[in-house]
Fold:
Amino acid sequence: MPSKKKRLTMGAVIILPTANHEWGMWGASLHNGYDPNVTWTAASRFLAETFRLKPEQVRDLLDARFGRHLADDLSFIPQLVAGTFRGGPADEEIIASHLAARFAQPAWRDWVRITLGEIKRG
Structure:
């Protein structure tokens, strides 16, 4: 689990640690049996690059209800485990590909805009 004070720097993208270990993307990833470091990093990088968000905006978005639902949506990623297909993220590249397909849809892009507006209004 990243330190609350540590900033992960991945290329030009600064990835802030979660401020919500119980809910949001981090908590839902844990609950769903995913590695939260992998899901958090992949989603943070994708959102920052795709929507040109500031690190604080990305963190707030993933710590919100939006992040929880996004983590739940990762279960739609097909994954072969011991000869059986089950859902869930395997690595950052697969997560980024899944998110790219989702956010190609206008409704998903609007969801980001709406959620950021709700966060800003507090």
Notes: The chain is about 55% helix and 10% strand. The radius of gyration is 14 Å. Confidence is low (pLDDT under 50) at residues 1-6.
